Amino acid sequence: MTRRLLLTGASGRLGSHVVPELQSRDFELIAPGLAGMPARVDLASPGGSRAAVLASQPEIVVHLAGAVPGRGRRFEENESVTAELAAAAAEAGARLLVFISSAAVYGDRRTWPLVESEALEPSSDYGRSKAAAERALASSGVPAVVLRVFNVYGTGFDDSLVNRLVASTPDRPVELRGLGGFVRDYVSAADVARAVASAALVEPQDGFVAMNIGSGVPRSNRELLDELSQYCEVHWTDVGGPTTTSVADIGRAQRMIAFAPTASLDLGGLLPRSGSLDHG
Q1: Which is it for strands 27-30 and 3-8: parallel, antiparallel or unpaired?
Q2: Percent helix / strand / coil, the chain, rounded to 5
Q3: Using an 8 Å Cβ cutoff, are 97 and 142 in contact?
Q4: Residue 210 and residue 257 in contact, taking contact as beta carbons nearer than 8 Å
Q5: Neighbour tally for 135: CB within 10 Å
Q6: 60, 66 in Cβ contact below 8 A?
Q7: How far apart, in whole angstroms, are the C-alpha atoms of residue 249 and residue 110?
Q8: What is the pLDDT of residue 276?
């Protein structure tokens, strides 16, 4: 059965991975620049989100678009646009809204793998805006799946630490905030895209469910350097910093959407050359 799906953020960096994944499955995809919509839709304009939903009458809404750090949009849009989309989805009778949230809603003060029942303690404006968007969605009445995505790397994610280290040069080393005490969960954009497509088929039992989307593998900066050094030269300096950890427990996503991320780093499309580690 073909499902009619409205995708926001199709032209963004994650959208470039999600669009082909959705197109490979049984969805009738509606998105700016694709069939059924003009090339550009300003969801943040007054009534823009509602108009897009009511015009397309989707069964499913997947909301990728949002304000991200350093991209010139107001973080408040993450809450306001999500709330308007959710209200419109409920009005249109959509059966599901999938929202791309962030591990930033947890903060980075815990040292254990994070489960979805953890208290949300964001420490950044971006994280706070995503947490506010989640709250707006939870109270909207539309069935929803929230994907709390951890550190994404891959084509298009040039600000990812993985991407930056692969692209580093002797005259442009990457500054690292310590080697053993900075621990993160790195997930490939391809794995995230597969999770998005699978989540669009979920039937939320309680109307709202959050899932962590990460690799489930903790990597310190030292471990990240060791792994990357097997494939390319990396250039870095250690500027030091506080001990911080952000790693996903992905058990719920494994159970609910059969999420099976790549445990090793997937560097396809990123590697310019081979070589050995240079710690400049």
Answers
A1: parallel
A2: 30, 20, 50
A3: yes
A4: no
A5: 14
A6: no
A7: 12
A8: 39
| Residue 131 in tokens | 């947490």
Which CATH number applies to 3-156+187-216+248-257: 3.40.50.720, 3.30.1330.20, 3.30.70.1020, 1.20.1250.20? 3.40.50.720
Taking the C-alpha atoms of residue 71 and residue 277, their distance in angstroms, rounded to an integer, is: 32
Contact 215, 191 (CB under 8 A): yes
The confidence score (pLDDT) of residue 249 equals 98
Q: Which helix (H) or strand (E) holds 238?
A: strand 236-238
pLDDT of residue 256: 96
- The answer for residues whose C-beta is within 8 angstroms of residue 183's C-beta and 6 or more apart is 218, 219, 220, 244, 245, 246, 247
Low-confidence ranges of the chain (pLDDT < 70): 33-42, 44, 67-74, 272-280
**Partners of 187 in the β-ladder:** 152
* Closest CA relative to residue 103, chosen from 80, 132, 86, 126: 126
- Sheet strands side by side (includes 27-30): 27-30, 3-8, 60-63, 96-102, 144-149, 208-213
Q: Is 85 helix (H, G, I), strand (E, B) or coil?
A: helix
pLDDT at residue 274, as a whole number:
41
The whole-number pLDDT of residue 221 equals 98
Q: Regarding beta strands 27-30 and 244-246, do their DSSP bridges make them parallel or antiparallel, or are they unpaired?
A: unpaired
Q: Which two tokens stand for residue 174?
A: 């990457």
Residue 255 CB contacts under 8 Å (≥ 6 apart), including other chains:
none
